[in-house]
Amino acid sequence: MTATRVCALSELEQDTARRVEVEGVPIAVVLDSNGEVHAIGDTCTHGDISLSEGFVEGETLECWAHGSAFSLRTGRPLNLPAYEPVPVYVVQIDGDDVLIDPNLKKEV
User: Fold this and answer.
1) Which residues form the Rieske domain (predicted)?
2) For a tag site, which of 49, 51, 63, 97 has the least CB within 10 Å?
3) Is the model's pTM score more than 0.90?
4) Domain at 4-105: CATH code
5) How far, CA to CA in Å, does 36 sit from each of 31, 64, 83, 91, 100?
């Protein structure tokens, strides 16, 4: 598989999650306060809630429904009630294009 363009880098708002879908896989794309782009699974492992509707703080994305925060780097939950991690995807930047291959997960 090859990476798919999901959005323009210039379209991302800092400290805000954006939901994209690649090959049927929901992914939350985040431009953090340091200017780094992250891509994690968009579904909270606790309650089947879209994480992209949550809150970005530092290097975490917090589920709006129950408050579990997930690391943007590792996908691991940092607090309960979630205890299962979400997948983390490799992000490629090509000029202004943000590219993600849902079959290429980061090893953490």
Assistant:
1) 4-100
2) 97
3) yes
4) 2.102.10.10
5) 6, 22, 25, 10, 14
Rg (CA), the chain: 13
Query: Are 37 and 12 in contact, with CB atoms under 8 Å apart?
Result: yes
Domain ranges of the chain: 4-105
CB atoms within 10 A of CB 67: 14
DSSP conformation class of 80: S
pLDDT in tens, 4-61: 999 999 999 999 999 999 999 999 999 999 999 999 999 999 998 999 999 999 999 9
Q: Which two tokens stand for residue 79?
A: 């607090």
**pLDDT of 1 above 80:** no
